[in-house]
Design goal:
The complex is a heterodimer of chains A (322) and B (290). With 322 residues, chain A is mainly alpha-helical. Chain A is 73% helix and 3% strand. Chain A has a domain at 29-245. Chain B has one domain (3-123, 137-218).
């Protein structure tokens, strides 16, 4: 037991050091990959709130990510001078409003039908982004510039610099992740897990299951929206790539590859997804096929994800199976 | 064009699309009733059917040959998928099944994009069915669409005969109602599921082949029909073939008349229809179980 605690300390300290020193360790253009991992972590954790903790499997989570991305794009393009933190916050709020509408309807259905109804909403949002040209820019998207970040005492920090923006994202992502971790530890978070285990029993115990799932859906939408907002800031562009169906698929893959059973699983999954994509796409355009094949293998053989490879029990289970 | 004529033409369009949708949705709803899994890969099989028709024609093989061969190939693919992947996931639980069919759906679409690209590929109708015929006066209608209508009605009749009049049909209906009980009574339900799965995939492939000449073959056609099928199943009731038929015809109507008047909102109309049905009868028009 003591060894385990020590292990966890060593791992978390080295991970923190790695994250802080990363800009010195890798070359300039690669830091964008690291920033991508950061916002994808936020996004996949928000998906995992629904899937791993809430027992809900939305196929259209990318729609909410896209809402965040487009809100940031529109706000930055139309209202210059809006503080960047407010922009990000408003993007999350807008995604949450859209998420509330989607959740209000979708949560009435169960299982695969819930999944498909969210997928339908995502298709609708995509069509909106594609066709509502005056606002969304259609296929061209909206290009933006990262504004400066004004700190109360230190003055303005230029976020145009990639390294500065990496640290900026790191802080935001860490704060939001910590808040969602805390959210899961509240009594409400526990009731969510209870509903996942046995919805009928939870409702007999007096939990309002629909309402709890609705609140969970709103919270997850907010986080996904913040992730989307950071993606626009990273790419300096809000485009269809932030709202197409692949984004929804990405959430599922990142979460499942990393491990849906644990809080940090999706973070690991995002890192794997981004790095693997970068590596694969250097020699094939159709890297998604390989990602999909890996996903299927994981579903069949290692459903607790890559993060479970850190645990001894996984090896025992793999070894002993059949 | 006089209003009445336009009305009749749109009605025929809606019948054609509705029947096509029924062909895809029928296999999906049967498997859903028996295995309690919504097989998303089914829609990809439909897309694959269209692309196989395109590939056959490109290799200068006759369309008629494709019409026979593509369903056979896709039926076999479906059987392999069920036997070696889905059955494994079945033991692991509901989410695993759904995620597996989802992964397969995704991979098949990516493979199609890889081989045939993202632009819609036109497929020529066979010479015998090209052109139009005179319905009355100077009103013409494409022969090919009539062929689609006719062949899907034929499949519907075959379906109806199999389901209502044969021993296998009785077993399938029983398994939809309660597969566990049928299994206990000494029927090999996994084999029955395999059979239905293969047949359903083959029919989806067939639908893809006959859809190709008037819808083209494109990668996202699977996703498009998947949403329509989903609406059909929800409206018709889970596992109900006749519900699926009725709902598919309704969606056909909504699609072709919606496109006529408010093109952007055909999808919204569909979902409004679904919402109405869900409010009046949450288990669907013909559904018995939740």
């Amino acid at each position: 037991m003591r060894r385990k605690v020590l292990m966890i300390w060593v791992l978390s300290i080295s991970a923190t050091l790695l994250l802080l020193l990363l800009p010195r360790l890798i070359s300039g253009s690669r830091i964008i990959l690291a920033t991508e991992i950061l916002y994808f972590s936020l996004y996949s954790v928000s998906f995992n709130l629904l899937f791993g903790y809430g027992g809900l499997l939305p196929f259209g989570h990318g729609g909410l990510f896209g809402m965040g991305a487009y809100t940031t794009g529109i706000l930055l393009a139309r209202l210059s001078g809006l503080p960047i933190l407010l922009t990000i916050f408003l993007s999350g709020i807008f995604a949450m409003i859209v998420g509330a509408i989607i959740g209000f309807f979708s949560l009435r259905l169960k299982g695969a039908f819930f999944s498909l109804l969210t997928f339908a909403f995502q298709m609708f949002l995509f069509a909106l982004a594609l066709k509502w040209r005056p606002v969304t820019g259609g296929e061209d998207g909206i290009s933006v510039l990262r504004p400066e970040f004004h700190l109360p005492l230190l003055g303005a920090i230029s976020l145009a610099d990639r390294v500065n923006f990496y640290y900026f994202s790191l802080v935001i992502v860490t704060i939001v992740l910590a808040l969602s971790y805390w959210f899961l530890k509240t009594p409400f978070g526990n009731s969510i897990r209870c509903i996942k285990e046995n919805e009928e029993r939870a409702s007999f115990l007096g939990y309002q299951t629909y309402r709890s799932q609705f609140i969970l859906f709103c919270v997850a939408s907010f986080i996904a929206g913040v992730g989307g907002s950071l993606s626009t800031l990273t790419a300096e562009m809000a485009s269809l790539e932030a709202i197409n169906v692949d984004v929804s698929f990405a959430a599922i893959m990142m979460t499942f590859i990393g491990g849906a059973g644990s809080f940090l699983g999706p973070v690991l999954g995002s890192a794997f997804y981004v790095v693997f994509q970068d590596w694969l796409s250097s020699w094939t355009d159709r890297w998604l096929i390989f990602m999909g094949a890996l996903f299927i293998v994981m579903v069949l053989y290692l459903d607790s994800g890559l993060i479970s490879l850190l645990k001894k029990e996984t090896y025992q289970r793999l070894w002993l199976k059949d | 064009m006089p209003l009445a004529t336009m009305f009749i033409i749109q009605l025929m369009h809606s019948l054609v699309y509705g029947m096509l949708l029924f062909l895809v949705a029928a296999g999906l709803t049967l498997v859903l009733g028996m295995m309690n899994v919504l097989n998303l890969a089914h829609a990809a099989f439909y897309m694959l059917g269209a692309y196989l028709a395109y590939a056959f024609l490109k290799a200068h093989v006759s369309y008629w040959y494709a019409l026979v061969m593509a369903p056979v190939v896709i039926g076999l693919l479906g059987i392999l998928f069920e036997r070696f992947l889905l059955r494994r996931a079945h033991r692991l639980g509901h989410f695993h099944e759904l995620l597996l069919t989802f992964g397969a759906f995704y991979i098949l679409i990516e493979v199609a994009r890889w081989i045939w690209g993202t632009t819609p590929q036109p497929v020529a109708a066979p010479p015998l069915l090209a052109g139009s015929i005179h319905l009355w006066a100077d009103q013409v209608y494409p022969v090919y669409r009539l062929f689609v209508l006719g062949s899907s009605v034929l499949i519907l009749l075959a379906f109806a005969y199999l389901i209502n009049r044969t021993r296998i049909g009785i077993l399938v209906r029983a398994a939809v109602a309660d597969s566990e009980m049928v299994n206990v009574l000494g029927i090999n339900v996994p084999r029955l599921i395999l059979l239905v799965f293969g047949a359903g995939s083959a029919v989806a492939g067939f639908a893809g082949v006959i859809a190709a000449p008037f819808l083209c073959a494109y990668p996202s056609m699977g996703g498009d029909i998947l949403l329509d099928c989903f609406v059909v199943i929800v409206i018709g009731g889970f596992g109900s073939i006749w519900g699926a038929l009725l709902a598919a015809l309704m969606i056909g109507l909504v699609q072709s008349f919606g496109v006529l008047w408010i093109p952007q909102f055909a999808l919204v109309l569909e979902f409004a229809l679904m919402a109405v049905v869900l409010i009046i009868k949450p288990s669907g028009l013909f559904g018995e179980k939740e």
